[in-house]
Amino acid sequence: MENNVIILAGGQGKRMKTNMPKALCNVIGEPMLEWVLTACENAELDDICVVKGYEGQQIEDYLAQRKSKAKICTVMQEERLGTGHAVMQAADFLKAHAEGNTLILCGDAPFIDAETINGALELHTEKDCGVTVVTSRVENPTGYGRIIRTEDGISGIVEHKDCTPMQLAITEINSGCYWFKTADLLEVLFDIKPENAQGEYYLTDCIELLIAKGKKADAFISSNPHVALGANDRRGLLAQNDIARYEIIGKWLDEGIEFCCTDGVSIGNNVTIGHGTKIHSGVILRGNTTIGENCNIGNNCIIENTTVGNGVNLNNVQAYESVIEDDVKIGPYVQLRPNSHIKKGAKIGDFVEIKNSTIGEYTAVAHLTYIGDSDVGSNVNFGCGVVTVNYNGDKKFRTVIEDNAFIGCNTNLVAPVRVGKGAYTAAGSTITTDIPDNALAIERGRETIKEGYAEKKLKARTEKFEAIHGKSEEK
């Protein structure tokens, strides 16, 4: 039996005050839509239709750049006339999958999970239901539709504003997630009417129509307390971010990861952290980032799509799409731009930027240095203020520095250039030609001393100062 998914992602979210679809607003660095898609893929559902609407091209663009094994198509909802109307736009998709079951999800409810999806499907198929509603029990159900249960299932969903006093006491709520038998959904989908104050087509009306036709309806209670949580404004989005942030931190605490302070800490869903690692305040780990064992990730590090080895010490480091091998020490105030590879035991000190470069084993880049488009060997020493001059205004060129070289302070290496094994550059040199192995390169202007020159300059400066501030009294 073929199962498929329809994700409703056409909402504008006016109260978000943004020019993007609400489903593309971020929770922990990922669009809410991405969370929903990931849950579907984790549940091994790989035939997905996304209903787009407001700024639909942004949805298309996001899906186009996304790496996925799932087969994802989109349909357009030109007018936003309710959840039922959104599903109507996917009628052709439903007809092409009429032999299976269809999961309907909200693209702005990011906390749906694979366990809930599969648990609801199991109940749905075991009881041969026409529809199964995913529900949650909450302490404060205000604003949510209540689930009306019977001995053998449910009889419907009552919206909060329509509840009787007895129904208001019900704490089981509708999450907005449903499994439908696809053929049954098609049978009633176009029978729903916009007979409500909003003039919209409600998908929940399909439940009563199916029950009226003798189809079974039931509800699966998710153990996830946040499965129903959406966001209608920035406050709601912030609440989602806080929930996600603490849920993920809690997971890593259970794995034995030490957090010195959780203030400002944000860890993405796809991040992995090894045993014995310590995370300090302000750390942001995003994307497909891997942190090894026994690392110290210091204050205010931002690590994105980067692999970090074991025993690494980072302090105020920003690293993007890079590799940091074992026993490396970096920081403070270091930026690793994409395609940087820092090999075992290297030391990168303060105020250093590295881009598209390899730094060899046990090489030291102490401070105030820019290394771009370079291949640096092992046990190389960089003095303060070294710059690889890689760009001529038109093209970029590579610098090669071989093993055991010593680069003196304030050296400019004008690429393309090669520094041989064991070679030295004298402080203050601008190097434009290759340096042979074990050679010393010196490029400096001749020093000239003019006796008495400074005395004349000092006299002029003193007179100018006194004209402005007055003559100082002698002591």
TrEMBL record:
Active site, per annotation: 367
Keyword DNA-binding on entry: no
Any one biological process term the GO annotation gives: UDP-N-acetylglucosamine biosynthetic process
Region feature (Pyrophosphorylase): 1-234
Record key words, sorted: Acyltransferase, Cell shape, Cell wall biogenesis/degradation, Cytoplasm, Magnesium, Metal-binding, Multifunctional enzyme, Nucleotidyltransferase, Peptidoglycan synthesis, Repeat, Transferase
Highest taxon in the source lineage: Bacteria
Subcellular location field: Cytoplasm
EC number per UniProt: 2.7.7.23, 2.3.1.157
GO molecular function (one): glucosamine-1-phosphate N-acetyltransferase activity
Pathway(s) served: Nucleotide-sugar biosynthesis; UDP-N-acetyl-alpha-D-glucosamine biosynthesis; N-acetyl-alpha-D-glucosamine 1-phosphate from alpha-D-glucosamine 6-phosphate (route II): step 2/2; Nucleotide-sugar biosynthesis; UDP-N-acetyl-alpha-D-glucosamine biosynthesis; UDP-N-acetyl-alpha-D-glucosamine from N-acetyl-alpha-D-glucosamine 1-phosphate: step 1/1; Bacterial outer membrane biogenesis; LPS lipid A biosynthesis
An annotated GO cellular component: membrane
Domain Nucleotidyl transferase: 5-254
Cofactor: record remark: Binds 1 Mg(2+) ion per subunit.
Cofactor(s) listed in the protein's UniProt record: Mg(2+)
Binding-site residues for acetyl-CoA, renumbered to this chain: 390-391, 427, 444
Catalyzed reaction equations: alpha-D-glucosamine 1-phosphate + acetyl-CoA = N-acetyl-alpha-D-glucosamine 1-phosphate + CoA + H(+); N-acetyl-alpha-D-glucosamine 1-phosphate + UTP + H(+) = UDP-N-acetyl-alpha-D-glucosamine + diphosphate
Main location: cytoplasm
Main EC class the enzyme belongs to: transferase
Transmembrane feature ranges: none
Binding residues for Mg(2+): 108, 232
Family: In the C-terminal section; belongs to the transferase hexapeptide repeat family. In the N-terminal section; belongs to the N-acetylglucosamine-1-phosphate uridyltransferase family.
UniProt subunit comment: Homotrimer.
Function in brief: Catalyzes the last two sequential reactions in the de novo biosynthetic pathway for UDP-N-acetylglucosamine (UDP-GlcNAc). The C-terminal domain catalyzes the transfer of acetyl group from acetyl coenzyme A to glucosamine-1-phosphate (GlcN-1-P) to produce N-acetylglucosamine-1-phosphate (GlcNAc-1-P), which is converted into UDP-GlcNAc by the transfer of uridine 5-monophosphate (from uridine 5-triphosphate), a reaction catalyzed by the N-terminal domain.
Name this polypeptide is given: Bifunctional protein GlmU
Gene name of this polypeptide: glmU
